[in-house]
């Protein structure tokens, strides 16, 4: 039996861990870690936000390369297919929760909530379908949905960590970046809901039910 190249799964594990680390760092920057909150000076907060941004970028990059390499190296496995959407959801949901722990962001509150609701609902649907022997395949639109989420959230995190990253605070640059981030998150929410409905329809066709 030919050994399967483990690199794609390693990258997926990196994304999963990066999502957990990123959320922990954002929670720490927000004062949510008890043993750190009393010592949270501005410099320490900036340090946590800076490394949270780096962890997000690392996780987002692996989202492209693990799937690409799995196909290129013919290293697609059932375990990788299971772990990949879990890592995606941890990174996306961790970013949303972490950013809102830092401060309210009213302009993306609705799309962020819709993304969270959809991700939890689809995860429950997939689990329920799997218990009945039905596998709901990930669609290409769902993959693009994740890309839109990560790009939009990445830009929003960039704006929130702007000063922490040592960038010049220039409204002429920051404002368009924030507006682009907000627009992409709304677009991602729309695509997220659409793909969620696709999963519901696929489940209804595949799972026996009473009319």
What brief labels describe this structure?
211 residues, Four Helix Bundle (Hemerythrin (Met), subunit A), 7 helices, 77% helix
Can you give a write-up of this model?
It contains seven helices and no strands. The chain is mainly α and 211 residues long.
Number of helices: 7
User: In the CATH scheme, what's the topology name?
Assistant: Four Helix Bundle (Hemerythrin (Met), subunit A)
Unreliably modeled segments: none
Question: Residue-averaged pLDDT, rounded?
Answer: 86
Count of structural domains:
1
Reported for the largest beta sheet, the result is: none
How many strands in all?
0
Query: Could you tell me how far the N terminus lies from the C terminus, measured between alpha carbons in angstroms?
Result: 47 Å
Shape: globular
Cα radius of gyration in angstroms: 19 Å
Q: Judging by the overall fold, what is the CATH architecture?
A: Up-down Bundle
Q: Give the class-level CATH name.
A: Mainly Alpha
Structural class based on helices, strands and sheet pairing? mainly alpha
Strand content: under 5%
> What is the string of helix and strand elements?
HHHHHHH
